[in-house]
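Before a colleague's protein record goes any further, I have to sign it off. What it holds is a sequence and that sequence's fold in token form. Would you go through it and say whether the fold makes sense for this chain? The record follows directly below this note.
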Amino acid sequence: MQSQSGNYCGDSNPSTELQQLVQPSDQEQRQVDSDCVVESNPTGTNGCAAQQTNVATHEKVDNANGTTGEGPAGSTRNAEDELLNSTLESLEISAVAYSQDDNELGSDQLDDTILENEKMVDYQKVLDQCGYTELMNMLDENNNKWRDIKISIAITGQSGSGKSSFINALRGLKDEDKDAAETGCVETTIYPKPYPHPDNKNLVLWDLPGVGTRNNPQETYLQTVNFKKYDFIILVSSNRFTEHDTYLAKHIQFKFDDPHLFFVRSKIDVDLENKQKGRRIPMTEKSRQETLDEIKKNCDENLMKDKIQSPLVFMINNHDTHTFDFKTLANTLVDKVKELKRDALVLSIAPFTEKIVDAKVDALNRRLNDVAGCAAVAALHSKREEGERLEIDILKKEMLMYKRQLGIDTHSLNVVAGKFKKDIQEIYIALNSETHAILRKFDDYCARADKVVPSELHGLQVLKNNEKLYERYQRQWSSVLKKILHLCIKENITLQRKIVEWSHT
């Protein structure tokens, strides 16, 4: 943050409007827009087109007649209102307990939530020299450093192997989606082509040309693709791995100490379908598993016969990431990624395994106090006597991140609803979704949680001598975020259980 002249400011103009302090990225903005339309208005009517880009303005709940455009205001609306009231009452009870117990200054168990004096001094310098907006930008950047960490995954294989569909599956896309990798049986890749993950531009899957083609002969292939720059290398094949594949694998293992080299046997669902076509009697689960074991064993033996050491082979169906070994592959990527890059990978991929969900929760818990600190600074800067609550934007943005990370956001639930031919309202009811109710009245939720008594220092650019008030706010918003994260975890667990139930009906 500190410039060569000793000024703590960046290049931004200190006079920038305060409302710009929590502007989301383009991807986050699209997600907020989507959540607004359905969280506030599940039928998609009376959406957010006319609203400002500030996160708080997306909480457009009631229209002129007091409804949210969800259709008949019958039992569904009453049930949602009851759930909302119950959630708010529960918050008030926990907030009262917090104000009586946890809010006592000097509590040893909360020492790690107190901002160090050195940090407070640094923050005050930024505030004095650059203003509130620049300070909040700095805090937001500190809380989201994982987005700046680059992860590169190389995907290679012969044409028709399912390489492009595999890239799309890892990015949570279907073949016809915008920015999806082009699929087909004709080799179109001549040079390595990057495909950024839609939720994190720094997680990049690279579509590499197949080795042994006219444009990429074996002799020059390793120099052309430069495998040193990749964190993982994945070889994809839709049948047995070819001589070109094993040539490449041997050279990668020889050249690098820990190459993180994986083998993906794609289109395994097609193999089972073809096996079934040659039978009169439907395959049993046992016979299907025996076929899978036979294919896996064959892959392992052939690779080891070609002197590939301890090959890691995963059998997958690119069009259904919940079947075969796709989850195991995802878990292995998380296990083997370098520690410094773990959060960047975990917070970018979909929560389709228990291990990934646990890793996401761990990452979200570790950032919770820092986000609460950011909200505390915003609360201190708010003009409470005028009803201003700048921290609400920050808290809402974090809640939307929790929902997105745990697969209970609007987009994810719409995908589930479409798959099982259900209305989005049915999904919310099945989840007993307290987070949906909270988002409808997020300002009320935060107002009821706020037990800090305003002082004359509110709205002033003073942090250095205001540590106690800051501490109260940080612990208060930390408590609120913990409760929200707990609710998101609970709804994720319920959703996974419901998906299993719906899959068998």
